[in-house]
Automatic annotation (TrEMBL):
The keyword Iron applies. It catalyses: L-serine = pyruvate + NH4(+). One of its GO terms (biological process) is gluconeogenesis. This is L-serine ammonia-lyase. Keywords: 4Fe-4S, Gluconeogenesis, Iron, Iron-sulfur, Lyase, Metal-binding. Gene3D superfamilies: D-3-phosphoglycerate dehydrogenase, domain 3. It comes from Catellicoccus marimammalium M35/04/3. Pfam families: SDH_beta. The keyword Lyase applies. Pathway: Carbohydrate biosynthesis; gluconeogenesis. Coiled coil: none annotated. The lineage of its organism: Bacteria, Bacillati, Bacillota, Bacilli, Lactobacillales. Residues 10-135 form the Serine dehydratase beta chain domain. GO terms for molecular function: 4 iron, 4 sulfur cluster binding; L-serine ammonia-lyase activity; metal ion binding.
Length: 225
């Protein structure tokens, strides 16, 4: 039997987070997925299409999954008192959104799966995320205007966007100075654009992410969390 390792940061992730909503898996974890997408997209999207699979498809309306996702896409954390009002707040802000209940199996074999497509007049982004319990989530696929990277299973994730390639040897050199270990390194390229994902052994601080941004000369360095 294959054992799966969950990337909980502490025992409190298992007990459950401080949150607004009825379920750590169907509310808090979903809000975390939405907020990660907000961070990757860099702004609140104008249009949102969420496709739910399996358990999410069956229970999203009753478990607050819809407002949790939209709250995250507006940049809120699960403990924000506005989470339950997110659908109304998003409409007031001009966001258009729809929720689709797929009858197909999850594309990543997980009951709590959402595929989220966000866009505005300038860019599009599709992200597949799963809620793994205790308010924790995993981003499984990132498709940034054709740049697709899979899988990325940890919450200790740094995303680099650039117009020049990012070399692992240079990243390792910088991370050695910072006292950080790279668990995995993935990169994709298309038409002179690069998307690089770093899974680290711990969550980087804002100053450490800034150091990567400065020394690697990338366009963006995004820490999810």
């Amino acid at each position: 039997m294959t054992k799966k390792r969950f990337n909980y940061n502490s025992c409190f992730d298992i007990i459950g987070p401080i949150m607004v909503g009825p379920s750590s898996s169907h509310t808090a974890g979903v809000c975390a997925i939405g907020r990660a997408i907000f961070q990757l997209f860099g702004k609140m999207p104008q249009k949102v299409r969420v496709t739910y699979y399996e358990s999410f498809a069956q229970t999203h309306q009753g478990h607050g999954t819809d407002y949790a996702m939209i709250a995250g896409l507006m940049g809120m954390k699960a403990a924000d008192n506005r989470v339950s009002q997110a659908l109304d707040l998003a409409r007031e802000a001009g966001m258009e959104f729809e929720f689709i209940e797929s009858k197909e199996p999850s594309p990543c074999q997980h009951a709590n799966t959402a595929v989220v497509e966000v866009s505005d007049e300038e860019s599009t982004l599709t992200v597949t995320g799963v809620s793994i319990g205790g308010g924790a989530m995993e981003i499984r696929f990132i498709d940034d205007q054709g740049l697709r990277i899979e899988p990325c299973y940890t919450t200790n994730l740094v995303v680099l966007k650039s117009h020049l390639p990012v070399y692992k040897e240079k990243v390792d050199e910088i991370c050695d100075v910072l006292g950080v270990t790279i668990d995995s390194f993935q990169s994709a390229a298309m038409d002179g654009r690069y998307l690089t994902l770093l899974n680290t052994d711990r969550q980087l601080t804002s100053l450490e992410v800034e150091a990567l941004f400065d020394r690697l000369h990338v366009d963006k360095a995004i820490r999810l969390g």
